[in-house]
Amino acid sequence: MFPRKEIISRIYPVKGIDVSHYQEVIDWKSIAENDIAFVFVKATEGISLKDKLFTRNWERIKQEGLKRGAYHFFRPTISAEKQAAHFSRSVELELGDFPPVLDVEVLDGVSKKVLLIGVHAWLVHTEMEYGVKPIIYTNQDFYNKYLRNAFENYPLWIARYSLREPKLKDDSKWVFWQYTSAGKIKGIKGRTDFNVFHGTLEELDHFSLQPREILR
Q: Helix (H, G, I), strand (E, B), or coil: what is residue 19?
C-alpha cells in the first residue's frame, strides 16, 4: 500500500510544507532539493509574539528560491486590529510571495459571533495594509462549525489529515490542503506539516503577489 504522501502527491503534485520554531533550525538547502515548491512559515501570534526563527526562515526560504508565505496565529480574545498591526510590522511581503495568512483554529472561550467579528476585522485591516485578500487557514471541522458562509471570497487553506480531501459544508473550494502533521523530510529533524496546492505550478505563480498588488 502506498503511503498517504505518495497517493495524494499523484493527484496534487505541487507540494509544500509549513513550519515554525517547533521545527528548530532547518536545513533549507536540503528542503529545496526535495521537490518542495512552497513553504508557509509562522510569523506572529497575538499582539506581541514573533516566532523566534521567523526572520531566519523567511530569509533562507527566499535564498533557496522557494515560494513563501507568512501566517499569523489568531487569538480571539485580543484586539484584531492590534493583531493585524503586529503582523504588518513584522512581515514585509515581496513580489512572488503569497498573500498574508490568518490561522484561525481556536475560540479561546469567545462566542462564534465574537470570533467572526474579530476575524473579519483582521482580514479587512490586513487587506488594506497589503492590497490583497489574505488566506484563511483552519481545519475542516472548525471551518464547518464556525466559519462557513462567512468568508466565501477568501482563499482557503484547510487542514484535514486524511486521504480524503477537505469537504466544506458551504461548498467552498480549498486552495491549499494540509493533509498530515507527521511528515518526514530531509532538512528537518522532527516531523512537519505536509501540504498540496490545488493547481499547477503555473497557477501557483499566478496566485503569488503580482506587481500591482504591492502597496507597501
A: strand
pLDDT in tens, 132-160: 999 999 999 999 999 999 998 999 999 99
Instruction: Provide the CATH number for the domain around residue 23.
Output: 3.20.20.80
Per DSSP, the three-state class of 45 is strand
Exposure string for 91-102, b = 16+ CB within 10 A, e = fewer: bebeeebbbbbb
**What angle is formed at CA 87 by the lines to CA 165 and CA 58, rounded to 5 degrees?**
70
Q: Name the residue among 141, 200, 142, 140 with its Cα closest to residue 173.
A: 140
Per-residue HEC secondary structure of 128-162 comes to HHHCCCCEEEEEHHHHHHHHCCCCCCCCEEEECCC
Helix axes 112-130, 80-90, angle to 10 degrees: 30
Does the global pTM surpass 0.85? yes
* pLDDT score for 212: 53
Number of domains into which the chain is organized: 1
Marked catalytic residue, from 27, 105, 165, 213: 105
Q: Is 35 a catalytic residue?
A: no
Domain span at 180: 4-213
Query: Quick one: pLDDT at residue 55?
Result: 98
Annotation marks residue 18 as catalytic: yes
Q: Grid coordinates standing for 102? A: 490568518
